[in-house]
Amino acid sequence: MPHSVAIVVGSLRKDSFNRKIANTFIEVAPPALEPAIVEIAELTFFNQDIEGSPPASWVAFKSKIKAADAVLFVTPEYNRSVPGVLKNAIDVASRPYGQSAWDGKPAGIISGSVGAVGGFGANHHLRQSLTYLNMPAMPQPEAYLGSLGDCVDANGELVDRTRQFLAKFAEAFAAWVAQHATR
User: Among 23, 45, 49, 59, which is most buried by a count of CB atoms within 10 Å?
Assistant: First the structure.
């Protein structure tokens, strides 16, 4: 039975490069994985005052994360860190304290940027949070996709070399998930 993978995209833009990466990952993933994007656009800002009676968007998101065997984060870099919407999603599903939906789930990170360093800062800031959340993050291969404007063809699809890289990453992630997932 394939492992379910919740893909959390750190960009809300419908046609974002990172959403293209996530969709391509879904296409090239090996049969051992069953990946699906879990949307974050409807999540209201985390507010501890309402975590006792959470909004429906929080409950739905948290249940999808909890049901997944693993999580793949695909994120751009904003100001050398993760976008606020991604941090908000992490906070929403980690609360209330002691009831984190992320706990123990194997994770992977793909960061992408139109700049040359491929979201290195976002990737490593996210790794800090994953350590605290008790999510074993795949250490290798690292996935920093830089110059994303050059990774898309005239039709808006990822070029072959990027697709091939994602396919190799997906194979490694499948092995990581098989090693660390608990059902």
Answer: 23
